[in-house]
């Protein structure tokens, strides 16, 4: 049988050629990976996104309450951390594919019982879980916190398939049901929930029939409205404006029609609005009297397109 090598140094030269080709392939792979990462970073820029748009991941950025700011920061931080872990793992995978790809039929060295690596793989997930649990517990506590003496109180009553918003402070004596002024929605009218800014507002939720859910997308928050149980939550709205509201719990045939608008106004305008309501004005008339649009101005949730921070 003819031999493959005619000189004793041919195998060494062949090995050098193979190593040279391997090194070139490795450099090419790294260069390709670098180009891919660069193009990935250019996508938000080429799409017309700002840095804040890119790192908001389509979330609303108005953040009109301290609680919404906390939740936004937590979720965006979690997403960035997850992406960082993903990039690290992808990098390890590609490095192993390139560095330890098959070069010959010889079985590579088999490594087992690497205690440091095993400890790293065991401890790291627990550290990640502990950090996420800590921030979740802290923020959840702040979101659910209710002060002893809130500045305002508003009652949210859900029914199939609309909302009633009543203002208990307009009935200081508590003479009976129906005395506080209220705004009730119907099939021809989207109810407007008027709230003051820069004051703590305690919301009490009541359901007349089935489970509903009070949801304002810009607040990054929703709370179920359950029959037989009065849920409560407290927020402080810091930005004036109109915020779309929805029922976020499938509650029947016309669930999708349970729309409302949260209208945040200054404390002075809020007091004037309630005074007009007590005097007999309707909600649209009272809103117009304080210089606001009389009817709902937005029924569409936040837009995920760039530069869409304002309500539609």
In short:
The chain has 312 residues and is α+β, with helices and mostly antiparallel strands. It has six helices and ten strands, in the order ααααββββββββββαα. The chain has two domains: 11-101 and 114-144, no CATH class; 152-289, Cupredoxins -  blue copper proteins (Immunoglobulin-like, Sandwich), CATH 2.60.40.420.
Account of the protein in words:
This protein has about 300 residues and is an alpha+beta fold. The protein has two domains: about 120 residues, no CATH class; about 140 residues, Immunoglobulin-like. Helix content is about 40%, strand content about 20%. It is built from six helices and ten strands. The strands form two sheets. A five-stranded mixed beta sheet has the order 3-2-1-5-8, with no helix packed on it. A five-stranded mixed beta sheet has the order 4-10-9-6-7, covered by helices on one side. Helix 3 runs antiparallel to helix 4 and helix 5 packs across helix 6. The longest helix is centred in the first third of the chain and has 37 residues. The termini are far apart.
């Amino acid at each position: 049988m003819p031999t493959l090598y005619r000189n004793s140094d041919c195998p060494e030269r062949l090995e050098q050629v193979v190593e040279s080709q391997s090194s070139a392939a490795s450099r090419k792979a790294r260069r390709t990976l670098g180009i891919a990462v660069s193009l990935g970073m250019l996508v938000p820029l080429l799409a017309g996104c700002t840095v804040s748009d890119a790192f908001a991941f389509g979330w609303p950025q108005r953040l009109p309450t301290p609680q919404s700011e906390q939740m936004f920061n937590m979720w965006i931080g979690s997403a960035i951390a997850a992406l960082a872990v993903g990039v690290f793992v992808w990098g390890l995978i590609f490095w192993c594919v390139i560095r330890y790809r098959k070069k010959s039929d010889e079985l590579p060295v088999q490594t087992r019982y690497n205690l440091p690596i095993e400890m790293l793989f065991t401890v790291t997930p627990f550290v990640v879980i502990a950090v996420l649990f800590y921030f979740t517990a802290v923020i959840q506590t702040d979101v659910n916190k209710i002060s002893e003496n809130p500045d305002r109180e508003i009652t949210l009553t859900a029914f199939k398939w609309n909302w009633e918003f009543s203002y208990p402070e307009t009935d200081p004596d508590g003479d009976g049901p129906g005395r506080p002024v209220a705004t009730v929605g119907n099939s021809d009218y989207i109810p407007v929930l008027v709230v003051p800014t820069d004051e703590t507002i305690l919301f009490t939720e009541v359901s007349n029939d089935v489970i509903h859910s009070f949801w304002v997308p810009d607040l990054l928050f929703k709370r179920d409205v359950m029959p037989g149980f009065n849920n409560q939550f407290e927020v402080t709205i810091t930005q004036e404006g109109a915020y779309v509201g929805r029922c976020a719990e499938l509650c029947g045939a016309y669930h999708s029609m349970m729309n409302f608008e949260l209208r945040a106004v200054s404390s002075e305008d809020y007091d004037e609005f309630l005074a007009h309501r007590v005097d007999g004005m309707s909600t649209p008339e009272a809103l117009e009297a304080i210089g606001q649009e009389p009817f709902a101005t937005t029924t569409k949730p936040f837009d995920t397109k760039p530069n869409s921070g304002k309500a539609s």
